[in-house]
Design goal:
It holds the Pfam family 7tm_4. By secondary structure, the protein is mainly alpha-helical. It has one domain: Rhopdopsin 7-helix transmembrane proteins. Helices cover about 80% and strands about 5% of the residues. α9 packs antiparallel against α10. It is globular and about 70 Å long. The N and C termini lie far apart (about 70 Å).
């Protein structure tokens, strides 16, 4: 049996007309992700009171991660549909797997850190400035990057050490651990257990921490005034919506034994394409302060152009 040097992504095989429509949709989605997240980053950097706020510092980092996360798969999928070229060298496939898990894991950790930020702001408001100082925020973000790096290295090394031979077809849109292991010509049971233990534990563990954090927050809000409760719920609701649409697909894909089902491809598209598009909309549409800052920035830009 000959060794595999290229992977064929069967998920990209569609009729020519449908391929063009899907590629156009993907490129439009990618453009929306770029514009939305860049707007958030530029607005936070332009407004000093936002740049100095821990909440918006973390949001700016989340937007930056979203840009890279969706860039790992969406452009490649769109180009594959337009060109009809759906093969990818095994080395590039492993690199895509690494960066997919790297940026995705950073996002998981950042969303958890943002929940902690909201917990401190609501449950310990008098100590918020001392607890969530810039140094602490920087360390939490750096810790998220380091943890994600360790996670993705483990995932990639587990996949890279396997022999691949025979059929090189995977029924997916991009390279991920589960579909790639289907090409391995050896028993992958142990690797599957290690991968599920690693990724599944991170996804489910962080999700449970988030649930506990917001349970404590909701309990604390019962004693607030209506105005204070509504203001706190506004920022928490936006974060919870992002958590739900991001963690849902991750938990569905990575916390069960590797068995490919048709829903996997739909859920993967939801995680890598739809969620990054929705994140900027959720954080701006439900945040009065962010919308006002964006309007001021737009006004200054228009005046400068004149």
């Amino acid at each position: 049996i000959s060794p595999v040097h290229e992977i064929v992504l069967l998920g990209l095989f569609q009729s020519q007309g449908l391929s063009l429509a899907l590629a156009t949709l993907l490129l439009l989605s990618y453009t929306a992700v770029l514009l939305g997240n860049l707007s958030i980053i530029l607005t936070i950097r332009a407004e000093s009171h936002l740049a100095s706020s821990p909440m918006y510092y973390l949001l700016g980092n989340l937007s930056l991660v979203d840009l890279f996360y969706t860039s790992v798969t969406t452009p490649q999928m769109a180009l594959g549909l337009l060109s009809g070229h759906s093969t990818i060298p095994l080395g590039e496939c492993l690199a895509q797997l690494f960066f997919l898990h790297f940026w995705g894991c950073i996002e998981i950790f950042l969303l958890t850190v943002m929940a902690y930020d909201r917990y401190v702001a609501i449950c310990q408001p008098l100590h918020y400035a001392a607890i969530m100082g810039r140094r602490t925020c920087t360390r939490l973000v750096a810790g998220s990057w380091l943890g994600a790096l360790v996670h993705s290295l483990i995932q990639t090394l587990l996949a890279a050490t396997l022999p691949y031979c025979g059929s090189n077809n995977i029924d997916h849109y991009f390279c991920d651990v589960a579909p790639l292991l289907g090409v391995a010509c050896t028993d992958t049971s142990l690797v599957e257990i290690l991968v599920v233990s690693n990724t599944g534990a991170i996804s489910l563990g962080c999700f449970l921490v988030l649930l506990v954090s917001y349970g404590v927050i909701l309990a604390a809000l019962r004693h607030r005034t209506t105005e204070g409760r509504n203001k706190a719920l506004s920022t928490c609701t936006a974060h919870l919506m992002v958590v739900a649409i991001f963690f849902g697909p991750c938990i569905f894909i990575y916390t069960r034994p590797f068995s490919t089902i048709p829903a996997d491809k739909v859920v993967s598209l939801l995680a890598t394409v739809v969620t990054p598009v929705l994140n900027p909309l959720i954080y701006t549409m439900r945040n009065t302060e962010m919308k006002s800052a964006m309007r001021r920035l737009w006004g200054r830009w228009v005046k400068a152009e004149k």
